[in-house]
Write a sequence for this structure.
């Protein structure tokens, strides 16, 4: 599971991990840019640029990337999130060179044909409309916006509709020119290859790409919160939802690992398969307090490893006939129990074993391993994920208690209620 | 190529005296194990008035046994990061579980306990009923799920494929505990059950453990699961229905036909025709035309559900409410093209390369391996299927693709479900 690390002369970081259990290789390029780098007027630009990087270059005209990857039995995609933009291909190992050709081309040669930009505008708007069909999206967008007044985590990665309607090709192009330099990127390959041969091929493809000036980091830290924030969202449907967002430490913060244990205890283990949902959490405290008591039909928690302090989000689907306020009161009672010190060493051990199992499932797929290597390099450092289990195993009951006191603070949280409305045609 | 593949030599198959078939594949590449399988207790055995009964019954298996309460089952599984779940389809109830290989005994013990000794506690019946009813209420406000529900009703009237496996609010509300225990006694037997175990385990040890856990299970006296294949349906006229889901930003479309069974001689040609129409690369010709060239949708694809009977063959799209008619026209135009023009040889070869080339990716994880093995068993494909598969795919001709498109995809006579807000145009 050793990771070989290199930095090319143009500043490109390269991480290589050989894995010979199946004849497949995954190849990722991570860019240190996400919706955190956006300002009002161009929200959604990072995600839209990601879309445009499938829409044609001289070497790979529109549609060619999809076609060539599929023809070679591979899968590929692009992902944009608050902290990163990334692209990957997973291919039969003997075809991996195709990924290197696509990604080295994508870094510099995308065309941003004006006609394609306009066509993609409606696709991205359509993606946002699809999200707006989900009450949990509508609620979460408001809760997160309320939680972050200053920090650009304020807005969703998809962007605000007004910006999607008015942004121009020039905005997209400027984003591409600013952030897609090799010195702002990390290449990750995991799979059935020889690391020194792979490095030579990467050097050949990516080495000639000139560095760009390194972009300015984002520095708009969220000021301290002075009191609980509450939002109410009305929307279509018949089902109500509750979202409670506590502040959470960044991935590189030593508090992150006690927080992982705490979230496991409250809302269940986190899944580590990037393309699958969360594992069941029916023995978690909040499932027992909210679902077993028939107040909610389901509850989930999410604690993402992030570059800057973000949120520990808890979302409950309110059961028919119950109200968000009732679910919130039960949640508060359970959180109070934790704050009063009712955490056992067994619960901490359970959280650690759960993480070990999730780690094992995730490691079956080279694609997942590539994801975690890249993500940890973006939000913390390359060793972060490798050390994950050891750092979790070192967490004590006292650490968890302290994390609860620090982060499960009512005046420091944002609460959202989704109130369903009958909508007339 | 370093990895073995499921084959007659590497899949260890055995039949227990009670009729249970066990498939084991040793895969030492990660320290985990997957259990997956099915038994013949799907919704075929229920009437329209009982819709949801099979799913409700399957959902109750983990909610209390003679040896464990629901809470105990959850705690025992989750405390070691393991998971297990049951869910009903039309023909079968499927189950899936995974854990660290060291916890295989626990997984098998709980699987056997749930299958053999469920107690259907009255309080748990009401808890689960409430969760199902809340979910059905969410469904009523989901454009995607309502399009799918309506589509099946249009395509398969008075046919088990036309009914919702999850049921309807009035049917689920009316199911009593006796109907659940009755359904269980009637349908749950090891006769015809298949269990696949894949992971870091020895086939011999698994066989002994499964024999110990399930070998002396016989099911209730007189149990006779429903294994009939429902009659195929024909569409003699176009059927269109609009289902209003008010307040939504996006409309979902499902347009299609009755397809074919997995064992049909036409299957491989249809599989390729479907790949070309709405899968290959970024969702095939539909993605290329409706998404990329017209910018109408974020997702548009086609799906061929060939199972024990002739499931639907359909195109699915999510579009802005004002673009519904254009998207339908765009889908039908691609259907006509597939029928009227022979597919270019190179395009067929691309899809053939995709289907054969992507095998290594499908076989990378324990879950992927188990899924392929269960298909081999369920459809009688033979354990040498993966070895024969490339030749089967390559044997499909341009003429055969056109022939199946003409036989199954009638652009004048289809079922069309549209779910979304009332159109203002």
């Amino acid at each position: 599971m050793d990771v070989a690390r290199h930095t090319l002369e143009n500043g490109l970081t390269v991480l290589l991990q050989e894995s010979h259990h199946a004849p497949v290789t995954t190849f990722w390029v991570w860019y240190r840019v996400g919706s955190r780098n956006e300002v009002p007027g161009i929200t959604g630009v990072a995600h839209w640029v990601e879309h445009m990087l499938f829409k044609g270059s001289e070497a790979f005209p529109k549609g060619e990337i999809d076609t060539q990857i599929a023809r070679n039995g591979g899968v590929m995609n692009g992902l944009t999130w608050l902290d990163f933009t990334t692209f990957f291909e997973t291919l039969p190992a003997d075809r991996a060179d195709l990924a290197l050709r696509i990604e080295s081309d994508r870094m510099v040669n995308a065309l941003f044909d004006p006609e394609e930009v306009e066509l993609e505008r409606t696709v991205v708007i359509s993606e946002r409309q699809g999200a707006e069909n989900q009450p949990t999206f509508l609620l979460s967008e408001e809760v997160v916006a309320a939680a972050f007044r200053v920090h650009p985590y304020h807005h969703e990665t998809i962007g605000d509709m007004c910006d999607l309607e008015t942004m121009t090709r020039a905005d997209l192009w400027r984003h591409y020119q600013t952030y897609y330099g090799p010195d702002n990127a990390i290449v990750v390959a995991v799979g059935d290859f020889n690391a020194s041969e792979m490095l030579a091929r990467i050097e050949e493809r990516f080495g000639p790409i000139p560095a760009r000036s390194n972009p300015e980091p984002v520095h708009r830290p969220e000021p301290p919160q002075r009191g609980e924030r509450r939002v109410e969202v009305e929307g279509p449907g018949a089902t109500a939802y509750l979202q409670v967002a506590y502040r959470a430490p960044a991935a590189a913060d030593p508090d992150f690992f006690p927080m992982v244990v705490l979230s496991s205890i409250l809302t269940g283990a986190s899944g580590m398969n990037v393309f699958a949902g969360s594992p069941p959490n029916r023995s978690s405290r909040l499932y027992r307090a909210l679902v077993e008591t028939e107040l909610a039909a389901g509850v989930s928690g999410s604690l993402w490893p992030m570059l800057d302090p973000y949120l520990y989000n808890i979302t409950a689907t309110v059961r028919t006939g119950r109200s968000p306020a009732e679910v919130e009161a039960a949640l508060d009672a359970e959180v109070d129990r934790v704050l009063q010190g009712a955490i056992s060493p067994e619960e901490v051990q359970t959280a650690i074993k759960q993480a070990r199992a999730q780690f094992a499932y995730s490691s079956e797929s080279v694609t997942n391993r590539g994801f975690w290597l890249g993500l940890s390099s973006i939000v913390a450092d390359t060793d972060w994920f490798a050390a994950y289990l050891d750092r979790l195993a070192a967490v004590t009951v006292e650490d968890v208690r302290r994390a609860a006191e620090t982060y499960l603070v009512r005046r420091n949280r944002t609460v959202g209620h989704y109130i369903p409305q009958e909508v007339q045609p | 190529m370093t990895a073995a593949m499921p084959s007659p030599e590497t899949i260890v198959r055995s039949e227990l005296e009670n009729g249970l078939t066990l498939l084991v594949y040793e895969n030492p590449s990660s320290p985990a194990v997957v259990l997956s399988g099915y038994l013949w207790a799907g919704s075929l055995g229920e009437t329209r008035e009982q819709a949801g009964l099979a799913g409700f019954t399957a959902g109750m298996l983990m909610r209390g046994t003679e040896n464990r309460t629901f809470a105990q089952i959850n705690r025992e599984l989750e405390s070691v990061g393991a998971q297990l779940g049951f869910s009903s389809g039309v023909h079968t109830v499927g189950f899936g579980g995974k854990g660290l290989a060291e916890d295989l005994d626990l997984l098998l013990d709980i699987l056997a306990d749930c299958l053999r000794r469920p107690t259907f506690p009255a309080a748990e019946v009401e808890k689960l009923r409430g969760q199902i009813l809340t979910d059905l209420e969410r469904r009523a406000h989901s454009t995607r799920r309502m399009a799918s529900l309506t589509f099946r009703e249009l395509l398969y009237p008075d046919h088990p494929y036309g009914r919702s496996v999850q049921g309807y609010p009035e049917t689920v509300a009316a199911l009593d505990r006796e109907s659940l225990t009755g359904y269980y006694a009637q349908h749950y037997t090891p006769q015809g059950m298949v269990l696949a175990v894949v992971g870091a385990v020895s086939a011999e040890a698994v066989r002994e453990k499964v024999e110990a856990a399930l070998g002396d299970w016989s099911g209730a006296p007189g149990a006779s699961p429903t294994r009939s294949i429902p009659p195929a349906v024909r569409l003699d006229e176009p059927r269109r229905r609009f289902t209003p889901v008010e307040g939504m930003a996006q409309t979902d479309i499902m347009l299609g036909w009755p397809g074919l069974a997995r064992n049909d001689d036409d299957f491989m040609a249809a599989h390729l025709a479907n790949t070309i129409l709405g899968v290959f690369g970024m969702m095939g010709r539909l993605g290329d035309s409706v998404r990329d060239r017209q910018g109408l949708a974020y997702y548009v694809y086609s799906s061929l559900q060939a199972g024990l009977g002739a499931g639907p063959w359909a195109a699915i799209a999510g579009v802005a409410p004002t673009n519904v008619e254009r998207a339908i026209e765009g889908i039908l135009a691609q259907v006509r093209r597939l029928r009227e023009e022979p597919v270019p040889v190179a395009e067929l070869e691309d899809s053939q390369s995709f289907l054969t080339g992507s095998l290594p990716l499908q076989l990378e994880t324990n879950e992927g391996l188990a899924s392929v093995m269960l298909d081999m068993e369920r459809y009688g494909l033979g354990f040498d299927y993966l070895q024969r598969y490339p030749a089967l795919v390559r044997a499909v001709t341009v003429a055969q693709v056109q022939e199946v498109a003409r036989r199954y995809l009638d652009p004048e006579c289809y079922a069309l479900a549209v779910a979304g807000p009332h159109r203002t145009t």
Notes: The mean pLDDT of chain B is 95. Chain B touches chain A through 75 residues (CB under 8 Å). Chain B has two domains: 12-214, 239-420.
